[in-house]
């Protein structure tokens, strides 16, 4: 086990966590060439860029299926396992569901890294799945030069209670349940800088969205998604465009992880943030929003929080409930307005 | 001090770390970082700007050269990156007096002559030499370095004298080499330069 301690997992990868995601631009082009499935039981498919697929089994039950895996975002294998699992489980929560079962998906350079490292990764993943009240039922492993880990999660939801990333209505307020900046701080971790911020980011990434989702379930939620690889603005854009509305986000209200602003300021900005920005050209920002905050708005998140679009009259109450449930960083970050020029404006 | 870093092929945040290390290792001076992608360029520039360092960027065939100046590093001739009269380098000399250096005027005259000769023999030619204040006394008929300046001009170096200065010393009719210019042009020429050396 001594060996495990000295291994820096992130040195085996080029980009880390959700920053390793293929950019939305490239992905859209590929996916639009595929045939659209035509099955009435498919309640949520790929067409709205939602977090998971949903298939109706009967009047009271629909199946949620999701898959997410990525390269190490932290050096500690156990922590990496926890983060990857929290990230995978998040898609089920973002759809309003409960995870039931999960399967490991693993790529691992078994000739270069001790098997104990893989053991720690899987243990981290398992512990998170247990915390989520689900069970791991198996998995699949391949040999690869870069380690990769994630889960395919199956959950259930009542067909009437599905939360989609569309459905935001003008007048709604927007709530985010976690602070942003995990992409920038993962870059800082690689640079051995901002240790305090790196710890805060790891803690945030390893936190399940379970409590946020369970709290939200008691309120009227018009739209919900989790913030991952496309960054806060990328996922907000998908929600706004899909709902046919416009969103106004207040930059100063967006919760940031410790040290994230400073790390972005000195150029620890992952390539994914630039890719997201490039794709999201229609987003407008006031020039008064500082450059580092702009970068953070596009920063790819790993296991980010939920973005909720909720009626104005319940927003404050929900925010209080979220904070009580342990989402201490939760904040109201903007409002939904009538469709206008562009889908997102940051001021 | 001048440090060159080849950060091509380094994944993020490699170029920023390399830049940080290089800048931390010097009190003041210039660090030049070569990167091969937009993201690395942006991040290195962010790092430099965040620390208040001077930055200039040149692009060549998909690669970027980011030049960072730490402290008040006046660039000495010997610091310049060797380039054999490279056309991409836009060096401007600003000569503000007819003698070189402060102190003894007689010595200063000898030094200026020696400087003009050395410049002529140098492999790195300036694009422009601007003469201001008593420096304009070097571009008139009685100049001791006229011969050298003529050769530089023949070699393609642009020689400019400040019109106000020529008027002030009442030598406007004695100008023997190069053209007359005004402050707006001088500011423009210096602003477009990759390097301005003031004497």
Gyration radius over CA of chain A? 19 Å
Biggest interface: A-B, 17 and 16 residues
| Order of strands across the main sheet of chain B | 8-7-6-5-9
Mind telling me the C-alpha Rg of chain B? Answer: 20 Å
> What's the architecture of the largest domain in chain A in CATH terms?
Alpha-Beta Complex
Distance linking N and C termini of chain A: 50 Å
Q: Overall mean pLDDT score of chain B?
A: 84
Q: Please state the structural category of chain A.
A: alpha+beta
Please report which band the strand proportion of chain B falls in: under 5%, 5-15%, 15-25%, 25-35%, 35-45% or over 45%. Answer: 15-25%
Predict the CATH topology of the largest domain in chain A: Phosphoribosyl-aminoimidazole Synthetase, Chain A, domain 2
Tally of DSSP helical segments of chain A: 12
Order of H and E elements of chain A: HHEEEHEHEEEHHHEHEHHEHEHEE
User: What is the count of β-strands of chain A?
Assistant: 13
By CATH, the superfamily of the largest domain in chain B comes out as: DsrEFH-like
Overview of the molecule:
- The complex is a heterodimer of chains A (347) and B (199).
- Chain A has 347 residues and is of the alpha+beta class.
- Chain A folds into 2 domains: 9-161, 2-Layer Sandwich (60s Ribosomal Protein L30, Chain: A), CATH 3.30.1330.10; 173-346, Alpha-Beta Complex (Phosphoribosyl-aminoimidazole Synthetase, Chain A, domain 2), CATH 3.90.650.
- Chain A is 35% helix and 22% strand.
- Chain A is built from 12 helices and 13 strands.
- In chain A, the strands form 2 sheets. In chain A, strands 8-11-7-12-9-13-10 form a 7-stranded mixed β-sheet, with helices on both faces. Chain A has a 6-stranded mixed β-sheet with strand order 1-2-3-6-4-5, covered by helices on one side.
- In chain A, a hairpin with a 5-residue loop joins β2 (53-56) and β3 (62-70).
- By secondary structure, chain B is an alpha/beta fold.
- Chain B has 2 domains: 2-70, Translation Initiation Factor IF3; 91-198, Hypothetical Protein Ychn, Chain: A (3-Layer(aba) Sandwich).
- Chain B contains 6 helices and 9 strands.
- The longest helix of chain B has 17 residues, at 105-121.
- The two termini of chain B are 20 Å apart.
- The model of chain B is unreliable at 74-87 (pLDDT under 50).
- The interface between A and B is medium-sized, with 17 and 16 residues.
